[in-house]
Amino acid sequence: MEIRSLRHFVVLADTLSFRHAAERLHMSQPALTRSIASLEHQLGVRLFHRDKRHVALTSEGSDLLTRARRLLAGMDEFAFAAHSLRAASQQVLRVGVYGNGLAQLTHLVFQEFRRRYPEVRLQVMDADFHRGIGPLLAGEYHVALLRAPAQLPELRTVPVFLEPIDVLLPRDHRLAGLATTDVAALFDEPWVTFPPSIPGAWAAHWLAEEQRGEAKAAVGSYARTEYELYAAVAYQGHVALVPRSALRMRPHPGIVAVPVSGMDPSTAAVAMPAMGYDPAAAALADVATGIAREHIGTIEDARLPAGLPDNAGGFG
């Protein structure tokens, strides 16, 4: 039995849709169907009831799902431990940067971390949204700079600053000349957002699902990177919510940003696994909060979060 077959089982159980599960796993539906059938054959039990319209867990599948999750969590913990041991021996801190990270503070944070901890070698990587937070939980990144609209139990998240949210519009869009717009005015627009593999609470935030109520967003496309998100706005006529600093840092000739009312601010944060995180990751969070206190004025319209910790964690 292969671990990836268990992952296929869990994702299909979460979505109850071969199409959606295949998209999330980045594989074809026929390949996913073969994988599930092979797993059922190896286990000798049927995991799903399925017909052309519906997929449902069998009682046996429901019972085994809990065990599959436990096994996968154990494998992720094993992989994390291995990555941590390798990093500890090499004194390397791998940092994944999602989107624009900590905006204009990103460079200042890395610069100060290098000054304070010269023995630690930084490896900074541009995180691909289609992998969600999987690389962080698996130990490929020790720590990440990201936007965290909701707390997740699997992450230890240290907020660094808050800033308003804007909507990106094609330059010729009917709302492009407004000084501000309510998020409700965008509900009927085609949206570009991040892939379904990002945590559900984050996906909901960037689609304004709380403000929509029962109405569902019309998702026109998914973007794995900030560049792809910009391209979908400029060349496909889609709209997208972003932190206010995004377009200011990376302007695009085909896009304008309009402030949006009715949305909670974006939280720029440093995140690491909730359990077994690298001490250097906590040190980076400590540096980031200190830089924010000193340089928050660098980011227009940004503010410090209430109760910003004095120290995010020690580093031996």
Describe it for me?
- With 316 residues, this protein is α/β, with parallel strands linked by helices.
- The protein folds into three domains: 3-73, Winged helix-like DNA-binding domain superfamily/Winged helix DNA-binding domain (Arc Repressor Mutant, subunit A, Orthogonal Bundle), CATH 1.10.10.10; 91-161 and 266-298, 3-Layer(aba) Sandwich (D-Maltodextrin-Binding Protein, domain 2); 165-261, Periplasmic binding protein-like II (D-Maltodextrin-Binding Protein, domain 2).
- It has eleven helices and 13 strands.
- Strands 4-3-5-13-6 form a five-stranded mixed β-sheet. Strands 8-12-7-11 form a four-stranded mixed β-sheet. The chain has a two-stranded antiparallel sheet with strand order 1-2.
- A hairpin with a 4-residue loop joins strand 1 (48-50) and strand 2.
- Helix 1 packs across helix 2 and helix 1 (3-15) crosses helix 4 (59-90).
- The chain is globular and about 60 Å long.
- The protein starts with a helix and ends in a 21-residue tail after the last helix.
- Mean pLDDT is 89; it is low at 310-316.
